[in-house]
Specification:
Rossmann fold, six-stranded parallel sheet, elongated, binds uridine-5'-diphosphate-xylopyranose
Length: about 425
Amino acid sequence: MKVAVIGTGYVGLTTAVSLAMYGHEVVGIDLVEAKIAMLKQGLSPIYEPGLEKALVQVLQQGILTFSTDLKDAKDSEVLFVCVGTPEATDGTADLSYLLASISDIGVLHNNNPMVRTAVIKSTVPVGTGDRVAALLEDGQSLFVVSNPEFLREGNALADALKPSRIVIGANHQAARAVMERLYEGVAAPRVITTRANAELIKYASNAFLATRISFMNELSRLSTVLGTDILTVAQGMGLDSRIGPEFLRAGVGYGGSCFPKDTIALLQLAQEKGVSLSLLDKVREVNRSQPVWFMQQVRKHIPELKDKQIALLGLAFKPDTDDIREAPSLTIIEELKKSGAEIRAYDPIAAPAVQKLHPEVTYFDTPEEACKGAHAALLITEWKECIQLPWSVIHANMAQPALFDGRNAWPMNEVREAGFHYTGVGRS
Ligand code: UDX
C-alpha cells in the first residue's frame, strides 16, 4: 500500500521504517528541512538501537522516501499523523501540530480525491479522533482512525515490528478494512474498537504501568524499614499470573516523555469531565518524591554531603536512550547541589544533554573514572557498563567505598563481600 507518515520524530520515524519493512511504499513528511536532509542520507536524528541500520536498508530498497512537501503524499491511501502533542503549560496536550496536519490532509484530499484514511498515531486526549473526524471525515472517501503506539524508547523498532497488540479505533467498517490490510501478516492480537476506546487504551496503559512502579516504589520505603527485600517480594508477587512479573522494579522513579506527560494529561482530562482520579494523583506524587527519598537514604549513611565527591552513574531516564526528559537524575543532581556536594557523572550518551543544564557537574568517559576519589557512587540508570564493574579496582580507588543502588541492579552480596557499604531501594 502507499502510505505517508507525517512527522518524522521518534514515533513517526519508527512507524515509517517499520511500515516499509512490512512491505509498504512509504513517504515520510516533515517540515524541518535539515531533518529530512539527514534522513535522506540514512542518518537517524534520534538514538534508537537498530533504527539507523533499518533506515538505510529501506532507503536503499527505495521503499522509504522523505519529503518536506505533503504533495508528495498525493497517492497515499493511508496517512499517519505522528506529530508531537507536547504538554501545554496547564498540563493539557497541545494539539496545534496535529490540527495543522489534519487541515493539510484535508487540502491534499480536496486537490487529489481518492479513498483515504487518516490515522492518528500521536497520543491525543480521548475525543480528539472524533473531533478530527467531525472536521475531516466524509464517510465515503476520507476516514479517520485512532491507532495508538506502544513503543518503548530503546526498543522502539522491535516493538513496532512485533507489537504486543494492534489497537484500531475506527467508526467505519471501510476504515477498519483498510487498517486490517495495512497490518496483514503482522502477528499480534487486534482490538478493533471505537476511536475513543482506542485513545483511552493508550492513556490507561501508561497510567497503569506508572501506577505499578509507584506502588512498588512506595512499598520499597516500607521494605527498607522492615528489613525485607523488595526484589524477592516482587518476584513472589510476579509469579501470580494475575499480577505478572513486569514493571515491578522499585528504583529512583520513572521518567521519560510518556509516563509523566500521559499521566498528567489523563488527570487533566478527568478534571475537565468532573471526575477525580485521586489514585493517579498519588502515583505522580510518589514518583516526584522517590528521588528525594533515595537521597535521604544516602544522607543516612553520609550525613554531611558538603564538599563530598559523589559519582552519578547513568543520567538518561533509562538505559539505551539519550533521553533525559523527566529523568530522576535531574532531581538527584538538584538535591546534591543543594547539599554542596561535588558531582562526578557518567553516562555513555546522555551526558551532553545534562551538561547543557548542569555545566558545573564534572563528566567522565567511564564509570571507573567517575568513581575515582568519590565518597559515594549512586547508580541512577542501569546501563550495562554501569552494572558490570571491576569492583576491586573501584573499591581501591574510591575515597569511601559506599554504593547506593538506585536501580537494584548491582550485585548486593558480591559488593558487600568486597567491602563496600551497599544501600539499595527497599533491600537490606
Ligand atoms: C513507556 C511505555 O512502556 C510504552 O508502552 C509507551 O508507548 C511509552 O511509555 P518508555 O517511556 O520508553 O515507554 O519506557 P519504559 O521502558 O516503559 O520505562 C519508563 C520508566 O519507568 C523508566 O524511567 C524506567 O526506568 C521506569 N521503570 C520501568 C521502573 O522504574 N520500574 C519498572 O519496573 C519499569
